[in-house]
Amino acid sequence: MRRVFSAMTGTSSARPVAVSAVDVDEPYTDERDESFVVEAEDAPFVEVGGPRGTVFSPPAAKPAPAKPVTPAKVEEPARVFPRIAPDPATAFLSVRFHDTAPRVPAVAIGGPDAGLVARYFPDHPVSGEYRTLRDEIAKQLPDATSRALTLTAASPEAGTTTVLANLAVTLARGGQRVLIVDANVTRPGVAQKLALRPAPGLAEVLSGNLPLTWALQPTPVPSLQALAAGTATDASAGAIGRDLPKLVGQLRQWFDWVLIDAGVWGVVRERDATCASSDAVYLVTREPDADRPEFTGLRTWVKQLGGALRGYVTTRV
């Protein structure tokens, strides 16, 4: 820009220069305006002449500021801890875990009870007696496609659960579908006899807390299933008298034989009142007790409640 300016004005750019706008029609003079004095090095390019007067070029773009340089990250060296030898005199804190989570009681590891002679010793003479019992009961209900039986006793020593379980095994060995229902909610024994879970069972089903199909359990004997007593509550005890007959009606559609363990008669009156929903009621007693007044009175009591008393079974050891 200095060379062009010097060639047009005939001046040197080594010193400050006064520049004024020049009209093309006026002669050039060397008069200097001290109010417009700039350093030649900073003066913009000026094009003199033209119909629009003096034209100034835009100032040079300022260089972008340099980006700050981020110093490189210096990693700290890993800390090294000295190894400490254990002091024999130091008493360390000893721990041991104690599990308090609730669990379902474990079933018997050895399998079904040894008193199930019909399962373990089918050729034993006592197993033959159960086959006779099976045949006699079948003769009493010849035309029924599905049979529901209630077994109850006058005393807990009669062995009702053992008789019912052996009878169920004998029926199932013939290929018929058999279900044991443990309605002895005060002293349940079916689950232990067959090495099954004691709960959930009948109590949960009658309370509406569990579907029936979830409560049924298979047994080691093919074609034989069981409905354990479950965990009895006030609600389930009251539901026995109201809902057990309806439950028995549903079970008839699934099984050929439904055997109900009613425990000791008179303990749960709501359960005793459901005896009429069974096709037959059988009393179980020890042989020496068959002539006692409590047993003979029980026979009358069943009939008064509408139960179909069809016989009784005596036991002896």
Task: Provide a descriptive summary of the structure in words.
29% of the residues are buried. The model is unreliable at 1-5, 12-31, 34-43 and 104-109 (pLDDT under 50). Helix 10 (293-304) links the parallel strand 10 (280-286) and strand 11 (309-315). 29% of the residues lie in helices and 15% in strands. The chain has helices spanning 2-9, 117-120, 125-140, 160-173, 190-194, 202-206, 212-215, 234-252, 269-272, 293-304, and strands at residues 17-18, 37-38, 46-47, 55-56, 147-153, 178-182, 217-218, 224-227, 257-264, 280-286, 309-315. With 317 residues, the chain is of the alpha/beta class. It has 2 domains: 1-56, no CATH class; 117-315, Rossmann fold (3-Layer(aba) Sandwich).
User: Termini, distance in Å?
Assistant: 134 Å
Count of domains: 2
Physical arrangement of strands within the biggest beta sheet = 7-8-6-9-5-10-11
CATH architecture of the largest domain: 3-Layer(aba) Sandwich
CATH level-1 class of the largest domain: Alpha Beta
Element pattern in H and E: HEEEEHHEHEHHHEEHEHEHE
Based on helices, strands and strand pairing, what is the structural class? Answer: alpha/beta
Largest sheet: 7 strands, mixed
Overall shape: it is: elongated
What's the CATH topology label of the largest domain? Rossmann fold
β-sheet strand percentage: 15-25%
Radius of gyration: 54 Å
Number of strands: 11
Rounded mean pLDDT score: 79
Helical segment tally? Answer: 10
Name the helicity range: 25-40%
Q: What low-confidence regions span 5 or more consecutive residues with pLDDT below 50?
A: 1-5, 12-31, 34-43, 104-109
CATH superfamily of the largest domain: P-loop containing nucleotide triphosphate hydrolases
